[in-house]
Each structure stands twice: as structure tokens, then as C-alpha cells.
């Protein structure tokens, strides 16, 4: 047995009782070992000091350098020299797992409390330390709210942290790979990096390319391409210093750093000096058709997925890649040229809604739902398939993507530049501050890049034509939903099997791994019996999919009735959860602008998501009923928490929401519907410069303001709500700018029911 201590009876005593002496070996918590890190204090940099330091570098010499790698090295050296003067690298000793938000004064009070000898002294120091902790925690929360800048995800994390509901999961000292634990941080970093690379290689190896169906258009030359270049050829435009200033101003001011160790704040503060040198770097890269390796190298930060995932399992970590800021600047310049060229040749299909200006998940959900309802009203059976792609952005075949880029019509140097950009990438993993070795990245569009999403859209652009579905498809990047409508279930089942076969073939041919088991199938409308519907089977690769009771599209849920009830129920539950959270948050953050910002981010961020597409929009004077009324009551409770009012005061709801600065759910829905109508009217990114799919359903003519009469009959859909908003607001119809349209939408919403 393990010896845990010694016990003995003392022989001498002053009473009839024998004293017992026990020595127990208690293993206390070992103090965390201090760690010495070397870093710069970027927050302490002043603009004028950085500019003065940068001006001391011989920037005129850069214009004699034409090799892009040498230009990059020159810029990095100049910035590094300047930083050594204004923010030199210093050794800082820190302890892991410490409360970083506590001030030095509070930490001293805690230390004095722990050393107190008398009860009275202890109680005084305990109370002082507790007050200091509360004050520091409050200040930390307020600073975090400022940094969040309205981002709902960041505000949610802050809310949970403020109430002690979650703790950041520290990275363990080791990972378990094939049953064997890694020995240190370096081993864990290398193992996780290999895991990420192997995962993509395994997905690629699982792709089986079958014999193409005769109904599928397989591109063999430019004549079978999905977008004709029309004789228009893309060449890069010159990147002036003024353009670089605009690009840098649009980059988020984060503290994240790539392999060059330079955060965005340095470029923003020093842009007046750096604009011309950076423009020379960009122009050298574009002219030579070459991207420096350092700008294609990412640092992967593993983020634990939570939800009870095993922290020693590498699959429990989501990779977040950090690229150099100069890479983002270069990609933003190229992206602007690429988007302009693609707009001129209508390169993207009208059914693609992801990462496109003027389009959103609201537009995508509302368009699909409206088309489903219209088909059902015509007495047809609607069959909907929603496909799931595994790590779609990571498995892209770069050589195939490059050919698709060239098919858009580009000059040789543009083709050479994209060839350099897509190939030769590297990545490492940062684990507890220790980096793995760099490894080559063979597949995928670079994670965390600016160009990545646009390039993925190019890869997917041929899908609607190859599947032959016309407008019966909605794509949001890698989220694909297709449908078919027929007179009965037999016809729909046949068509769905053909569509599934075509999508499987398209995915395999384009290097995309289809997760067959996660494919969703929903049947709606028609008069076929339930027994017949249950027998429907759609073959998706090696799997067979049967109809389910509901289908999820970009976060919205629909059942076989295609009603909005499921989404309203979800909204009601989410509203109550958030209302209760705001009540608890008010105990940690005082009432005022910061609590209001936090509450607005976590409440309206959820309730306002695609609100005009997933909830009934009411323009009359009727009040909400059922779950929608419950959701509004929860929002009213949030307003009471923010204003400090009580229910027994019987403040009118409209006045209550106004004093809290919160819109009602219906107000948000009306504003959203109005803005969607305005964007649809002015959209010109559809086929042949026409309107987007929502605009085609809303308006009679290509450039006309008259709405389609049949749009009014598709009740409880975005199309119907957008039509009503457009016809009710002359101010909206006359708006020529986004701001004017927003003002018109706000004015329209002020006159509707809560």
C-alpha cells in the first residue's frame, strides 16, 4: 500500500486523553513555472515615432530592385529596423494559467491576504482583494467589449467568460497519435501539422471518379466552357500608392501576426511612409508573375472545438491560419481586378450567393423558400437535396483550378501569377508557443486568405450547367441545395437520383470530397400517400438517402409543409435564453453603453439573422401570436434589463424598446425585407447583367420598377414581403444610395406593428 503519512500516539499528556500526532503527505499544487518570452509592445507605438523611424531607412534604393523576393526582404528589413527603435524586443517573464485581467495592485492584495496572520487582518485584506478582483474584472470586460466592435461571436465568448460558464481550454502538453503520446510541445506541433496534411490526403484518396453520365457536360475544350471570355482578357492594373492606402485602411486592425512578425497596426500607423514601397512590391509581383514563398506561408493556430471533445485527440482542434499582412494587401489588389473582370463576362452563375456583394444568406434562403412555395401552390411535388462537402476549401486541386482561371480569359503573366500563388505554399502549427517544422501544402485554396473564397467560387461556377438544373439550385460557396418539381413522387424520385449522380460526378471531377451520409432529402407538396413517400430512395454515391422530417438550409429549418413555424419556434427559445443571459450579465457589467453593446450583439445578432426570410413579416396592425409573441416578450425583457424598468410599471412596449435602443422583431423583418427589395432592384450581377434571382421573382422587366403580380400570392415568403415593402415606400423606390435606402427602410418600419 502507498505510504501517505505517519500516525503515532504521544506518551505524555496533561489530561486523561492521549493526543494523536498525524503526519500526512499531501501533494499540493505545484506552482506554475515562469516562462520567459521575447516580444514587442506594439500597443505602445506612436504614429509620429514610427514614421520618423521609418523615414531613416533608405527607401529610395528599393526602386532599383526588380526581383520580388529581394523587394520583400528590403521592406521587412526596413520595418524591423524601425521597430527596433520604437518597440524593441524585450524579454518578459510570465506564468501560465494566471489571471491576466488582474492588476498589480490587486495581485499584491491577494498576496498580502494569503500571508495574513490574524483573523481581523485577514478579513480586511480579503474584502479589499475581492473588491479589487471585481473592479479589474469589470474593466477587463469593458475593454473586451470595445475590442469586439459588435462581433456577435466575440461578444458571446465574452458573455460566457464574464459569467464563468466557460474557460479557455489550455493546450495539453501532449497529443495522442495512434495510441502514442507525444513527448513535448514540439512533438505535439509536428504531430498536429502532419494530422492536418494527412486528413486532406486521405479525403483526396477517397474520391472515386466514375464514368461520366451521358447527361453531364464534361469540359474538353474552351467551346464547352461555362463562361465565354467574349474576347475580353484580364491583365493586372497598376497598384498606386493611393490604392495601397485604401487597401490598408480596409484591413482589420488585429494583433495577429504571420511569419514575418508584423501585425496590421504597424502598416496602418506607418502607411504614409510605406505606401510607395509596398506598391513597388505589389507591382513587381504582378509584373514578374511571382508570389514570394513567405507570403504563401501560414501559421496554424489550433482552436479547441469544445463540446466535450478529447483535448488529446488531434481531431478536436480546428485549424486557424495566420498569413502575413503583406499577403492580404497583395491579394486584395488582385481580387479587385479579378472581380471586375468576372463581372464583365458574367463568370459566376446567378445561383451562387456566397461571398458576393449585395447577396447574403437572407437572399439565398428567401429565394429558395419562395420557389419551393410557388411550386407547391401549383400542385407539384417538390424534392430537395442538400449536399455536404468535407473540408471543401482544403481539398481543391490547384492545377485544375488554374485551368479554370485561364478559361476566364487572362494574359500569360496573370496565368503565371496565379500558378505561382496556388503552388508552393507552406504551413506550420503553433502549439503552446512552439512551432512545428514547415511542411508543403499541395492542395486547397489557402485558409485565411483574401482570394481563397473567390477562387472556390470559380471552381464551383460550372455546377448549375453541368447538372442541368437551371434556377432550381442555391449555392452559398460549398453549401449546395438543388431541387426538382414534378406531378408526383415517382417523377421527382427519378429526377432526384439523376441530380445526385451528376453532383457526385461533379464533386469527384473537381477534387471535392462528398460526405454522402450527411446529404439531406425533403419532400413537400403533392397528394401522394405517406407510405409512398417513405419508400423514396435517392442514391448518393455509395449511400442511399431517404426523406427526413426536416431540412436545414444555411441555418434555417423547414419541414414538409415548408412553413416558417420551425424557425419561429427556434427564435422563441433563443430569445428567452439570451434574455436570461442579459439579466445575469447585468450583475457583472453596469448598465450603460457597454452592457447595451454586449446585449445588442448577442440578442439581435441571433434574432436578426435572415429575419425577413425565416419569420412572417407583418405590415398591418396585428400583434404577433404564438411563439413569435413569446420571442417578442423575451426581447421586451432585454429592454427592461437595459433600462432598469419593471413589468409592473406598464411602460408601452414601443416606448420601452425606444428607450432601450432596440427594434422589435417585426421592425427588423420589415427593414430587412425593404433592403432586400432595394438590393434586388439595383442588382446587375445576374445572367447577362440581369438581376439576381430574387430580383427576377420580384420585378416584371429587366430595368422596370413594377413588381410581378404573382409575387403577392407567395404568402409568408421573402418575395412577398419584399414586394409589399417596395410598393409601400415611395422613398425606397427613389433611393439611389445604400444609405438613402436604409433611411427609407427605417422610416417604413416605424409605421408597422410591433
TrEMBL record:
Segments forming domain Reverse transcriptase? 284-558
What the entry lists under Pfam families is as follows: RVT_1
The organism of origin for this protein: Caligus rogercresseyi
PROSITE patterns, per the entry: RT_POL (PS50878)
Q: Where are the transmembrane segments?
A: none
Sorted alphabetically, the Gene Ontology BP terms of this entry are: DNA biosynthetic process
Q: Indicate what this protein is called per its UniProt record.
A: Reverse transcriptase domain-containing protein
Amino acid at each position: 500500500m502507498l505510504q501517505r503519512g505517519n500516525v503515532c500516539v504521544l506518551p505524555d499528556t496533561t489530561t486523561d486523553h492521549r493526543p494523536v500526532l498525524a503526519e500526512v503527505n499531501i501533494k499540493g499544487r505545484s506552482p506554475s513555472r515562469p516562462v520567459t518570452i521575447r516580444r514587442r509592445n506594439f500597443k505602445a507605438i506612436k504614429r509620429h515615432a514610427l514614421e520618423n523611424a521609418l523615414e531613416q531607412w533608405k527607401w529610395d534604393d528599393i526602386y532599383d530592385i526588380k526581383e520580388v523576393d529581394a523587394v520583400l526582404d528590403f521592406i521587412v528589413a526596413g520595418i524591423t529596423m524601425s521597430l527596433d527603435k520604437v518597440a524593441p524586443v524585450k524579454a518578459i517573464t510570465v506564468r501560465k494559467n494566471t489571471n491576466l485581467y488582474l492588476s498589480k495592485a490587486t495581485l499584491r492584495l491577494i498576496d498580502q491576504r494569503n500571508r495574513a496572520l490574524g483573523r481581523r487582518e485577514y478579513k480586511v485584506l480579503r474584502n479589499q482583494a475581492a473588491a479589487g478582483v471585481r473592479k479589474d474584472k469589470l474593466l477587463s470586460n469593458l475593454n473586451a467589449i470595445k475590442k469586439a466592435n459588435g462581433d456577435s461571436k466575440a461578444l458571446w465568448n465574452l458573455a460566457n467568460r464574464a459569467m464563468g460558464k466557460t474557460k479557455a481550454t489550455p493546450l495539453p502538453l501532449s497529443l495522442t497519435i495512434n495510441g502514442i503520446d507525444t513527448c513535448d510541445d514540439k512533438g505535439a506541433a509536428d504531430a498536429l501539422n502532419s494530422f492536418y496534411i494527412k486528413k486532406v490526403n486521405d479525403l483526396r484518396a477517397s474520391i472515386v471518379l466514375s464514368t461520366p453520365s451521358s447527361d453531364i457536360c464534361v469540359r474538353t475544350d474552351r467551346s464547352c466552357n461555362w463562361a465565354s471570355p467574349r474576347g475580353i482578357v484580364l491583365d493586372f492594373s497598376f497598384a498606386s500608392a493611393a490604392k495601397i492606402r485604401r487597401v490598408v485602411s480596409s484591413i482589420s486592425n488585429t494583433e495577429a501576426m504571420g511569419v514575418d512578425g508584423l501585425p496590421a497596426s504597424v502598416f496602418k500607423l506607418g502607411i504614409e511612409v510605406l505606401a510607395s514601397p509596398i506598391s513597388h512590391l505589389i507591382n513587381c509581383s504582378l509584373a514578374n508573375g511571382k508570389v514570394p514563398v513567405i507570403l504563401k506561408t501560414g501559421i496554424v493556430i489550433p482552436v479547441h472545438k469544445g463540446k466535450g471533445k478529447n483535448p488529446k485527440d488531434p481531431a478536436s482542434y480546428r485549424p486557424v491560419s495566420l498569413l502575413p499582412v503583406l499577403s492580404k494587401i497583395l491579394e486584395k489588389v488582385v481580387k479587385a481586378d479579378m472581380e471586375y473582370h468576372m463581372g464583365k463576362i458574367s463568370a459566376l452563375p446567378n445561383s451562387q450567393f456566397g461571398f458576393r456583394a449585395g447577396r447574403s444568406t437572407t437572399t439565398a434562403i428567401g429565394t429558395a423558400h419562395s420557389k419551393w412555395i410557388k411550386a407547391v401552390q401549383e400542385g407539384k411535388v417538390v424534392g430537395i437535396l442538400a449536399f455536404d462537402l468535407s473540408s471543401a476549401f482544403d481539398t481543391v486541386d490547384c492545377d485544375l483550378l488554374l485551368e479554370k482561371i485561364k478559361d476566364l480569359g487572362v494574359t500569360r503573366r496573370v496565368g503565371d501569377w496565379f500558378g505561382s500563388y496556388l503552388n508552393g505554399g507552406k504551413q506550420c502549427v503553433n502549439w503552446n508557443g512552439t512551432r512545428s517544422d514547415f511542411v508543403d501544402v499541395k492542395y486547397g485554396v489557402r485558409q485565411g486568405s483574401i482570394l481563397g473564397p473567390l477562387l472556390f467560387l470559380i471552381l464551383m461556377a460550372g455546377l448549375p450547367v453541368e447538372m442541368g438544373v437551371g434556377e432550381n439550385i442555391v449555392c452559398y460557396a460549398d453549401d449546395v441545395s438543388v431541387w426538382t418539381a414534378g406531378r408526383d413522387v415517382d417523377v421527382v424520385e427519378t429526377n432526384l437520383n439523376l441530380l445526385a449522380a451528376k453532383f457526385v460526378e461533379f464533386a469527384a471531377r473537381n477534387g471535392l470530397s462528398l460526405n454522402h451520409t450527411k446529404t439531406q432529402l425533403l419532400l413537400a407538396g403533392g397528394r401522394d400517400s405517406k407510405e409512398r413517400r417513405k419508400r423514396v430512395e435517392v442514391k448518393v454515391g455509395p449511400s442511399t438517402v431517404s426523406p427526413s422530417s426536416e431540412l436545414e438550409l444555411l441555418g434555417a429549418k423547414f419541414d414538409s409543409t415548408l412553413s416558417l413555424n420551425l424557425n419561429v419556434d427556434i427564435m422563441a427559445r433563443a430569445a428567452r435564453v439570451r434574455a436570461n443571459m442579459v439579466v445575469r450579465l447585468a450583475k457583472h457589467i453596469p448598465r450603460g453603453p457597454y452592457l447595451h453593446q454586449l446585449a445588442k450583439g448577442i440578442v439581435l445578432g441571433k434574432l436578426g439573422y435572415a429575419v425577413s426570410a425565416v419569420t412572417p413579416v407583418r405590415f398591418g396592425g396585428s400583434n404577433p401570436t404564438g411563439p413569435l409573441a413569446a420571442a417578442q416578450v423575451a426581447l421586451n425583457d432585454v429592454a427592461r434589463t437595459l433600462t432598469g424598468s419593471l413589468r409592473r410599471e406598464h411602460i408601452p412596449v414601443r416606448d420601452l424598446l425606444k428607450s432601450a435602443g432596440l427594434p422589435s422583431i417585426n421592425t427588423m423583418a420589415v427593414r430587412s425585407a425593404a433592403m432586400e427589395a432595394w438590393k434586388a432592384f439595383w442588382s446587375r450581377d445576374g445572367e447577362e447583367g440581369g438581376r439576381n434571382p430574387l430580383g427576377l421573382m420580384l420585378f416584371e422587366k429587366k430595368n422596370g420598377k413594377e413588381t410581378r403580380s404573382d409575387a403577392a400570392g407567395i404568402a409568408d415568403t421573402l418575395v412577398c414581403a419584399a414586394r409589399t415593402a417596395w410598393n409601400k415606400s415611395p422613398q425606397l423606390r427613389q433611393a439611389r444610395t445604400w444609405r438613402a435606402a436604409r433611411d427609407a427602410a427605417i422610416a417604413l418600419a416605424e409605421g408597422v406593428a410591433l
